[in-house]
Design a protein that fits this description.
The protein has a 6-stranded antiparallel beta barrel with strand order 1-8-12-10-9-13. The relative contact order is 0.19. It is an alpha+beta fold.
Length: 352
């Protein structure tokens, strides 16, 4: 009997040693979970998702009531169109004012040109009179020598007389035109100043309209942002774990709508004792054994993605290789999910 008990004891010790060497740490599988909350306020008009459903990132899954926002945006668009029409009218008025100013300048320039033409005529007439007086002197001298007739001298005198009358008449026109131009110039100047003042007023109105339009665009940007916030979507690609709200309910900003997790890569949160830390490092590949119960397991290749900087007391649900260890370090091991791994499933880690 003693021999039998001895053999059984040796077998139990060997089994215990063997079990101790099967794994180096244990833990449970978890994933990156995101609780998506409402960004806006309003009744949930559409929200067709189910727990377990796969969703893509930034794809619309539902939306809140946007009726008031759409009405406000339509009002802003109408105001913007009215301001644009008003600005177009002001541009047309400014263009007309510019034309009036050009007409004033053209009229004033035409009067000045007319005076210049008259002055040229005066100069030309004076030159003709000077030339005729020279001719008169020459023919008068010739008349004394009987080389010319009195009629020739009289004809020259007549021509000089006519030109002098023309010169006097032209000079009178110049004087009258100068007086008129001087009088008109004051009126033209006043008109131009009035037009310039009107143009400055139009420019001021246009600047005011531009400021109003910028304000409307800013308000529209706020409305667009609020409408965007009314759309329900997931920030990540993953699986819907929990649905907290239903279509028809009233949502407020910050109210949880659903929980989503990226199940393509899950993480085994395992715990190692301090004397095991020298055997692990970030990026290290390890073997992860998922325990499905009933003796069913599945092996995976995992990579250490995080090691805690602080120790903690061993969780009650966790076993360690050294049962005497009170403090352990949490470690996350990333594992590509083949569809079998579920959150909360137990797993063991083999370092070698």
């Amino acid at each position: 009997m003693k021999k039998i008990f001895f053999i059984i004891g040796i077998a139990a010790i060997a089994t215990a040693c063997s079990n101790d060497n099967e794994w180096d740490a244990t833990g449970t599988f978890e994933a990156t979970e995101v609780v998506v909350s409402a960004k806006g306020t309003g009744q949930i008009m559409s929200f067709n998702i189910e727990e377990g459903q796969e969703v893509e990132a930034d794809v619309q899954l539902g939306y809140l009531d946007m009726t008031q926002l759409e009405l406000q945006k339509a009002q802003f668009d109408a105001n913007n169109e009215n301001l644009t029409a008003t600005k177009s009218q002001l541009d047309a008025s400014k263009e007309q004012m510019g034309s009036s100013k050009q007409q004033i300048d053209a009229t004033q320039q035409a009067t000045s040109n007319h005076i210049l033409d008259l002055e040229k005529q005066v100069a030309s007439t004076k030159q003709q009179i000077t030339n005729l007086k020279k001719e008169k002197a020459r023919f008068t001298a010739m008349l004394k020598d009987n080389a010319a007739s009195q009629k020739q001298v009289d004809d020259i005198n007549y021509q000089i007389l006519v030109l002098e009358k023309q010169l006097a008449a032209t000079q009178d026109q110049i004087n009258a035109s100068n007086a008129s131009l001087k009088s008109q110039s004051q009126g033209y100047s006043a008109q131009k100043q009035g037009v310039d003042a009107q143009i400055r007023g139009v420019d001021a109105q246009k600047r005011g309209i531009d400021a109003q339009k910028r304000g409307i665009e800013a308000q529209k940007s706020i409305i667009d942002n609020q409408m965007q916030n009314a759309i329900i979507s997931s920030p990540i690609k993953g699986t819907i774990l929990t649905k907290y709200a239903q279509m028809g309910e009233y949502a407020t900003a910050g109210k949880p709508l659903f929980k989503v997790a990226d199940m393509s890569t899950v993480y085994l949160r395992a715990y190692f004792t301090s004397d095991q830390l020298q055997d692990i490092k970030l990026g290290q590949q390890v073997t992860v054994v998922a325990d499905f119960g009933g003796g069913k397991t599945r092996d995976y290749t995992g990579k250490i993605s995080w090691i805690s900087n602080e120790s903690e007391f061993t969780p009650k649900s966790i076993q360690t290789k050294d049962s005497r260890a009170n403090l352990v370090y949490a470690v996350k091991i990333a594992v590509k999910n083949d569809g079998y791994l579920k959150l909360g499933l137990s797993g063991n880690v083999k370092l070698k």
